[in-house]
Amino acid sequence: MKTMSDIQRRSVRLIPSSTTIGAISRRPYPRPTPRRRRTNYQRQDWQVVAQITNYRMDSGAIRLILFDAGTYLNAVIPAPSCLTGRSRGGAAIARSWRNFVLDCGTPKPEWQPLGAVMYISGVGFWSQRTKLRRGAARNGAELHPVTSFRVVAGC
């Protein structure tokens, strides 16, 4: 699911639906953690306006910490080398990676501050809440993979 190469990738609506980080963080956490796209959240590309407070290279992907109105959310841009011919929207994901690096800098393994404000689109993903990461939503929601972004200010 993280690279949109899963068997249910065609069930994802790639036209972004506008929402807020707060609305995403209020969604109920599904039990057990879905390993397939069984929730509406996982079958939609979402767009939020957020400040990227920090970013880093994390297991070959760019991990972003998004912030808006007192709420945090993680978003992840998979490395183009992780995409396959089966990756739906692979060109858009690879473009997001390339543009982020060109606009904001090459990520390093340690957290880097940013402060840029962006429109970010990505597919809903449920992470295991037992593995909450820095800046993660309490309900385990993420945007993974990021499918596009547009800088409003910063970078």
Task: Walk me through what this model shows.
The chain is mostly beta strands. The protein has a single domain (9-153), classed as Nucleic acid-binding proteins (OB fold (Dihydrolipoamide Acetyltransferase, E2P)). The chain contains 2 helices and 6 strands; from the N terminus they run E-H-E-E-E-H-E-E. It has helices at 21-25, 90-104, and strands spanning 13-18, 44-58, 61-68, 71-77, 112-126, 141-153. It has a 5-stranded mixed β-barrel. A hairpin with a 2-residue loop joins strand 3 (61-68) and strand 4 (71-77). The radius of gyration is 14 Å and the shape is globular. The chain starts with 12 loop residues before the first strand and ends with a strand. The mean pLDDT is 93.
Average pLDDT number = 93
Question: What amount of the residues lies in strands?
Answer: 35-45%
Rg calculated over all Cα atoms: 14 Å
Helix residue percentage: 10-25%
Taken together, the total number of domains comes to 1
> What is the CATH superfamily?
Nucleic acid-binding proteins
CATH topology-level name? OB fold (Dihydrolipoamide Acetyltransferase, E2P)
H-E order:
EHEEEHEE
Protein traits:
single chain; 155 residues; mainly beta; OB fold (Dihydrolipoamide Acetyltransferase, E2P); 5-stranded mixed barrel; 6 strands
List the helices and strands and how they pair.
Blueprint: E1 13-18, H1 21-25, E2 44-58, E3 61-68, E4 71-77, H2 90-104, E5 112-126, E6 141-153
Parallel strand pairs: 1-2, 4-6
Antiparallel strand pairs: 2-3, 2-5, 3-4, 5-6
Please outline what is shown here.
This protein has 155 residues and is mainly beta. It has helices spanning 21-25, 90-104; strands spanning 13-18, 44-58, 61-68, 71-77, 112-126, 141-153.
